[in-house]
Design a protein that fits this description.
By secondary structure, the chain is of the alpha/beta class. It has twelve helices and eleven strands. Helix 2 runs antiparallel to helix 6, helix 5 crosses helix 6 and helix 10 runs parallel beside helix 11.
């Protein structure tokens, strides 16, 4: 993510809530991963409800079967400052996606499936390696369709000393009952809020009912973690950060989304208002999004941010070369 600046994360006195180590010790983590795996037999982990049997290797919208498939597992310093900090975020990119965004900048991973199938034990090993590299957290990117496998890897990693905060970095197209399996496991939710218009969400991302599903999911994430809390060094401990990518022609519905956040989550909400849109993947062939974002469009979004009293978070400089039409 390009350089971000807008306000600053507010430090709060951290508390010691229940976490996944407590859940491991009580046996609850094991029960949750069993419940999650049972859902793979007629997969309903995401709102598409494909109902295919992933335990037998069948694939649906996300093109993912039984084993976790990852594209990379590395330290990443390009996230929001409370996530990347000074030592980097331990970022694990999963292949496949429950969306089919025509503009996806990671389409070789999300849509072409670039990556490698690994075991849950190997996924746990990657998590432990990133912890040894002193990552501030483990940042699961596009994790929704591998929720059971992530819980299994966590269950394997905890007795080996794993203890980092977990970041759930997702499209925001999530089912509330699936998110509830993550309560007291995920410390920081980092969802997208992509659209406020049904037609745009279907046309651009093949995501029916995105607005309503996304808003219910974000409310559940907020219920679990609250507003962002950081330590004395500004590193995220717990909470919600919402990402909103501004699209050309108002396709993201920025004003409506930002107003909803202010009214339903609160003006304290931390928001990353992103300007880096460019027509990747199939976007070059899609009317309305086949050009870069321009400065006027991004300025309208920042004005909506300010008009709704949303003062916490980050904005970006527009890439002048990309915005040239």
């Amino acid at each position: 993510m390009p350089a971000l600046h807008y306000g600053r994360a507010q430090g709060l006195s951290p508390t010691k809530p229940m976490n996944y180590i407590d859940l491991y010790n009580s046996g609850e983590l094991y029960q949750r991963l069993k419940s999650a795996y049972a859902r793979l037999a007629s997969c309903d982990l995401c709102p598409h409800d494909c109902r295919i049997n992933r335990l037998k290797g069948e694939t649906g919208i996300c093109s993912s079967g039984f084993k976790p498939r990852i594209a990379s597992a590395n330290l990443h310093r390009g996230e929001e400052p409370p996530i990347s900090g000074t030592r980097g975020s331990g970022t694990i990119f999963f292949s496949g996606c429950s969306l089919n965004c025509r503009f996806c900048q990671n389409f070789p991973i999300s849509q072409l499936g670039n990556g490698e199938n690994i075991s849950c034990r190997e996924l746990a090993a990657r998590m432990l390696k990133l912890q040894k590299l002193r990552a501030h957290n483990i940042n699961f990117v596009t994790p929704t369709h591998f929720l059971p496998q992530i819980l299994a890897a966590l269950w394997l990693a905890v007795p080996q000393g794993f203890s980092l905060p977990i970041v759930w970095n997702s499209s925001g197209y999530e089912k509330v009952d699936a998110l509830q399996l993550l309560e007291d496991i995920v410390s920081i939710y980092l969802p997208d809020m992509k659209y406020s218009d049904e037609g745009d969400s279907v046309e651009i991302s093949s995501a029916p009912d995105y607005k309503d599903i996304n808003r219910q999911a974000v409310l559940e994430m907020f219920r679990q973690t609250g507003h962002l809390q950081v330590d004395d060094n500004g590193i995220a401990l717990k909470g919600l950060i919402i990402r909103h990518l501004v699209l050309p022609g108002g396709k993201a519905g920025s004003s409506s989304t930002l107003r909803w956040i202010a009214e339903n989550i609160g003006r304290e909400t931390h928001i990353a208002l992103m300007s880096q849109y460019f027509p990747a993947g199939e976007a070059v062939h899609t009317a309305g999004i086949n050009r870069p974002l321009n400065q006027e469009e991004y300025d309208e979004a920042t004005a909506a941010l300010e008009a709704n009293g949303l003062e916490n978070g980050w904005v970006q400089e527009l890439d002048e070369e990309r915005s040239a039409v």
